[in-house]
TrEMBL record:
Coiled coil: none
Residues annotated as domain NAD-dependent epimerase/dehydratase: 4-224
An annotated Gene Ontology molecular function: aldehyde dehydrogenase (NAD+) activity
Signal peptide: none
A Pfam family recorded for this sequence: Epimerase
Cellular component GO terms, alphabetical: cytoplasm
Protein name: NAD-dependent epimerase/dehydratase domain-containing protein
């Protein structure tokens, strides 16, 4: 039974991913929790909590869990922005340790530690033309990434470049909706407030009239892993 550690297990997508893996009955799921309250919520969801208050700057607790539980796969759905690079570097170091131990023991065929990073389609920028993952992304592409996620291109490349030590994959879901979906709060909340106040004031929503965003339900994203 594969052992999977989720970075971001208590978050919007991470909690759904944990549920999918647990409900499959085919995975043993671990999740990083920053405090006791988060740990209890994971335990209730049948996820083994790994308490690590500061996984970016003080990662020893979850790195030791990877070592001690002989974890197979790490999934980063933390949404930690540029700090995701620290997760990759730390997991890669543990993966290298595992390969070194195997080599010292005379083993020639040992599975690599797996690492999956959740990126997003915003790296493809904004375009009225169809794109797919065969289209090269970056600041020099025909549709450069949105400024907010320009850093992701380099991080995706770093994840893929770690394939000498880790078994890696990058997922790029579209704009996620469903459940609480706080990403949409800036668009929906003003409408809700006006409705509650029965106001006749004009509401301005930061959207383009001809915008056609790609959407995917959070449950479908979780299943995609």
């Amino acid at each position: 039974m594969p052992k999977v550690l989720i970075i971001g297990a208590t978050g919007y997508l991470g909690s759904r991913l944990c549920n999918v893996l647990v409900n499959s009955g085919q995975h043993r799921v671990y999740g990083i929790a920053r405090n006791e309250a988060k740990a209890k919520s994971l335990a209730v969801a049948e996820v083994t909590p790994i308490i690590c208050p500061d996984p970016i700057n003080k990662p020893d607790a979850y790195l030791d869990a990877i070592r001690n539980f002989n974890t197979d796969i790490i999934v980063d759905v933390s949404g930690a922005n540029q700090e995701s690079a620290k997760f990759l570097a730390d997991v890669k170091a543990v993966g290298q340790e595992r390969l070194n131990k195997a080599k010292a023991a005379g083993l020639t065929h040992v599975p690599k530690l797996g690492f999956i990073y959740c990126s997003g389609t915003w790296v493809h920028g904004s375009s009225d033309k169809l794109v797919n993952d065969l289209d090269i992304v970056g600041p020099d592409s025909a549709t450069p990434p949105a400024p907010l996620v320009t850093w992701r291109v380099a991080h995706e490349n770093a994840v893929l470049a770690a394939s000498d030590v880790l078994d890696v994959a990058v997922l790029r879901p579209a704009l996620i909706y469903g459940g609480e979906s706080t990403i949409w709060t800036a668009f929906i909340l003003p409408l809700l407030q006006v409705s509650r106040d029965k106001s006749l004031h004009t509401v301005q929503i930061p959207l383009s009239v001809d915008s056609h965003p790609g959407l995917v339900h959070v449950s479908d994203v979780a299943t995609g892993f």
